[in-house]
Amino acid sequence: AEFECINSKKKQKKKGYKNSGVVSVKHCQVVKEYTFLDYIMGGCQINFTVAIDFTGSNGDPRSPQSLHYISPQGVNEYLSAIWSVGNVIQDYDSDKMFPAFGFGAQIPPTWQVSHEFPLNFNPSNPFCAGVEGVVEAYRVCLPQVKLYGPTNFSPIINHVACFAKQALQQTTASQYFVLLIITDGVITDMDETRNAIVNASRLPMSIIIVGVGGADFSAMEFLDGDDGRLRSLSGEAAMRDIVQFVPFRQFQNAPKEALAKSVLAEVPGQLVEFFNTMKLSPPNPNPAPNPAGTI
């Protein structure tokens, strides 16, 4: 198709004026840019995994000063974070079955330190039924482990990344993985964690870090990457920002919905950005025409 460029003023002044140029369209393709809702309604499954910090810096769970101390009312900061975020998360998870892990504790029967142990102590089936299942598994697990350390994030990030990598072999946007890490402090394996996040940025995966307690969370802000692209130890830049950090105590006196909203603020955009970049459509895209389609 060709279109003439006409300058009306020149046309009035010049008798032999034809045009000021011709635009030739050699190729035209209408590209559907899917929204977060398009992916969810089109069959994309969001898989949430919960990871809880059981390192010694949390304090003895039997002490009221401990972040793991369960009050007579049956709550602590970890449980509050699980409830607040989980109740929103499960609305996006069709089967509402969440793998739940702990890290940084000595676990029975050998009392070796583990950085990715199932809260239900069942490696072949670490799934918990809904938020209630995660809470119950946490309550049962807590008195059975010894809080230890160090605070290593990379094992659980790499664990979830393995499943995200498998999902990427499919030809549609069928699965997206979100890892929720609830922690009290400074990361010990920062270099390995940076590498793990940079690798995960190329996979259908996001990471949400909720910080509990009053520790220095500057390292978490660094991983968030809002001030620039996170880089691995070798200098490789992340393909996209996949980390969202939220300090829990800023929301203690706010409605629970405020924490959940802040925690999940970036996930929809991260999901859409990844699948659009990879040119992956939902498994069951809506056949209805999109009047706002872009060229």
UniProtKB/TrEMBL annotation:
Any Gene Ontology biological process: ERBB2 signaling pathway
Top-rank lineage group of the source organism: Eukaryota
Annotated TM spans: none
SMART domains, alphabetized: VWA (SM00327)
Recorded GO CC terms: plasma membrane
Signal peptide residues on this chain, from the entry's feature table: none
Domain VWFA: 45-251
Record-linked Pfam families: Copine (PF07002)
GO MF term list: calcium-dependent phospholipid binding; receptor tyrosine kinase binding
The protein's name: Copine-3-like protein
Organism: Lates japonicus (Japanese lates)
